[in-house]
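User: Quick sanity check before I run a bigger batch. Here is a single chain. Can you write out its predicted 3D structure?
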Amino acid sequence: MNIEDLLRETLSDMAHEEQPPPPGRFFQVNRGRSRRRSLSLVAAAAVTVMAVGSTLVVQGLSSRATAPKDFTGQGSGETLAKTEQRQTTLTVKEGLRLAQILKQLSTATGRPLVEFERAAKDGRALGLPAYAKGALEGFAFPATYEVSPTSSPDELLAAMVTRFNRVAENSNLVDGARRVGRTPLEIMTIASIVQAESTNRRDMPKIARVIYNRLNHTPEMRLQVASPTMYAMNKFGIKASNEDLKSRSRYNTYARLGLPPGPICNPGADAIEAALKPAAGSWLYFVTTDPEKGITKFADSESEFIKLVEERKNEERKKNHRTG
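Assistant: Done. Predicted structure follows.
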């Protein structure tokens, strides 16, 4: 039984229960957790997520409570119609950071941002897999959602995690990670870097290969990609300044070996697939030579890399000349 069927069955069960089912029915939690966390678990478990094509319809218990009246002819059809009219279509794009997504949800629902920030901190309560280690960054899956006005922050974020879990299952994430010698969290971290560094879907497997080649290089190479460093500095862009490169953050891949400690954005299915199945090649470098046209080129030697950097600088000079 998948999670959507389980949640639908639970809603039906709850209609006949005097007390809500214990949170442990859905998630394993520490009994010493606070009462607030337990309430969040119940709220997250109560979310109904219904697939409609590529769209998820997210409804809270309060919105579904009108359903029985709809079938009794007591005038509640009008209530349901008004509820449906107030639904908001929300598209979360690939590559957004969690902070950006929370702001988008706040704007779309009219709820205070702090409510979403509070719900996001209780990551395990949202149904995150154990390998996420309780952190929501990277697991708020980008998709289109039909949001009911009665949906709570817990319910909305739980719906995004539900969508991620479905994609993870379809892509065989856990077994796939084992096959390439990485943990599922490392795969999601690689996928987030691929998403942040790619200008188009076509280049994603090749960028993933560059990351693997650098991680597996002997002697060890630093990743030296800008996006994790920019994430640590709360900045955006494809180039880090000299000051940025001095950061002591664990996300500074210019100063530290290996991957950053976790995802830097929320990748889509294509980036996850690329991280699991990188292209074959010996590349160690990639340079986006023309950001406007989305052109990225690859090299397997430092001399070739330097030529690509010069090519990008020439494109930047041409652009500045045209706009100047």
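Residues 302-323 form the longest helix (22 residues).

User: Great, the batch can go ahead then.
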